[in-house]
Amino acid sequence: MPIVSGSQGVVPASSGIHDNDWQGSLRRAIRDPAELCARLELPESYVAAARRAAAAFPLLVPEEFLNRMRRRDPHDPLLRQVLPLELENDEVPGYGQDPLEERHTQDVSGMLTKYPGRSLLITTGACAVHCRYCFRRHFPYSASPKSTTQWEPVLRQLRSDRSLEEVILSGGDPLTLPDERLAWLLQQLSQIEHVRRIRVHTRLPIMIPSRVNGPLLEMLSQPGQVRIVVVHVNHAAELDASVSQSLAALQMAGILLLNQAVLLRGVNDQVEDQVNLSLRLIECGVLPYYLHQLDAVAGAHHFLVPEAEGRLLLQTMQDRLPGYAVPRYVREVPGEPSKRPILP
Ligand SMILES: *Cc1c(COP(=O)(O)O)cnc(C)c1O
Ligand code: SF4
User: Fold this and answer.
1) Is 256 among the domain residues?
2) In total, how many domains does the chain have?
3) In testing the pocket of ligand 1, which one of 201, 259, 289, 340 has its CB within 8 Å of the most ligand atoms?
4) If you measure from the C-alpha of residue 129 to the centroid of ligand 2, how many angstroms do you get, rounded to a whole number?
5) What is the pLDDT tens value at each position of the chain, 344 positions in all?
6) Which residues span the domain enclosing 227?
7) 30 CA to middle of ligand 1, Å?
8) Does 9 reside within a domain?
C-alpha cells in the first residue's frame, strides 16, 4: 500500500490545509513592479528602476511569498531575492550569460550530463518565482522537450546508459509541470531498472505550498526508487507554517529532504541569518545540504559575498551548530565533474 493516497493520505485534496489551487496561484503571481511596490508600500522610485531591470528578466513573485515579506522595508531579505534593481544592468567584467558553460554539456536536447552517474533533465523553463541571482537566467530553455514524443530521445539515452543511476529533474522548476505531465515522466523513469534514485530540484513547496497536493505526494512516494527533493531556501523567514506543513507531508511520504541555498549579500550574509536558517530547516525536517558561492552571472554582481568572508561565516557556523546543520560551502567550476568545496 502506498504511504499516501489521494483520498486518505497525509494531505488529502480537500483537507483545507491549503486552497489547492496552485495553478491559479502561479497564474496570479505578481508580474508588475507597480503592483509589487504598492502591495509592500515601497517608494515610487523603486517602480521605475524595477521596470528598467525587469526588461531583461521579468519580475515574478507569487502572492504566498509576498505575504511573508515585511511592508515598507526595501531591505527585506525575501524581497531582495525577487526585486529587480537598476544595478542588474551594470556590465561587470567576469560576469557572463552562461557562467557554468552548461550549453556545451547538452548532448541530447533537454538533458545535461555534466555529473558522472547523474543525468540532469531540463523539464521546463518555467519557475514559480524569478530569483534575481539565478545562474540560468539567460538559459536557452526553448530547446527543452515539451511533448511526450520530444522526451523520447532523452528516455532512449537514459535507457541505454546503465551508468546513469540517478536522474535529477531540474529546470526551471519541474513542479510547475501539471500533475499528469509529471506523473507520466516519473512513470517512464520508474521503468528504467538501473535508475535507482530520482531527485527533484524545486522551489515550489516554498513559493506555493499548496503545490504539495495529494496527487503529487502519491506520485513521489511510489516504492522502488529512492526519492529526494532538494528545496531552495535562503532565509528562515521563508519557512512559515504553511511551508512547514508541506515539507512535513513530503517527509511523511518517505522523501528525503535537502536544502540548497546561495550566499547572497543583503539576504543571508550575516552569521545569525545562516544559523537561524539551518536551525529552522532542521525543525522542518530538511537537512542543509549546500551553500553555494554566487555564480558569476550577468546582472547578479551586487549579490556577491567574497569567498574569504564566506569562509569565516562557515567557521562560525561550525563552532555554533551540530555538524548536520552545517551545509557544504561550495562553488561550481565550469567543466569540473563536481562542485568544489570551499573550506573554512
Ligand atoms: C550541483 C548540482 C547538481 C548535482 O548535484 P550533487 O548534489 O553535487 O550531485 C545538480 N543540479 C544543480 C543545479 C546543481 O547545482
Ligand atoms: S527557482 Fe531556481 S531556476 Fe527558477 S529562477 Fe529561482 S533559482 Fe532560478
Assistant:
1) yes
2) 1
3) 201
4) 7
5) 333 333 333 444 444 444 579 999 999 999 999 999 999 999 999 999 999 999 889 999 999 999 999 999 999 999 999 999 999 999 999 998 877 777 666 668 889 888 899 999 999 999 999 999 998 777 766 667 889 999 999 999 999 999 999 999 998 999 999 999 999 999 999 999 999 999 999 999 999 999 999 999 999 998 889 999 999 999 999 999 999 999 999 999 999 999 999 999 999 999 999 999 999 999 999 999 999 999 999 999 999 999 999 999 999 999 999 999 999 999 998 888 889 999 87
6) 102-341
7) 29
8) no
Protein residue whose Cα sits closest to atom 4 of ligand 1: 115
* Phi-psi domain of 110 (left: phi exceeds 0; alpha: psi -120 through 50; beta: other): left
| Among the bound ligands, the one closest to the CA of 262 | 2
Q: How far is CA 36 from CA 46, 47, 112, 167, 199, in A?
A: 10, 8, 35, 37, 33
Distance of CA 204 from the midpoint of ligand 2 (Å): 10
Dihedral over alpha carbons 273, 274, 276, 278 (to 10 degrees): 160
Confirm whether 6 is domain-assigned.
no
What distance in Å separates the CA atoms of residue 184 and residue 120, rounded to the nearest whole number?
Answer: 17
- The whole-angstrom separation of Cα 341 and Cα 330 is 4
Domain assignment present for residue 48? The answer is: no
* CATH code, domain carrying 183: 3.20.20.70
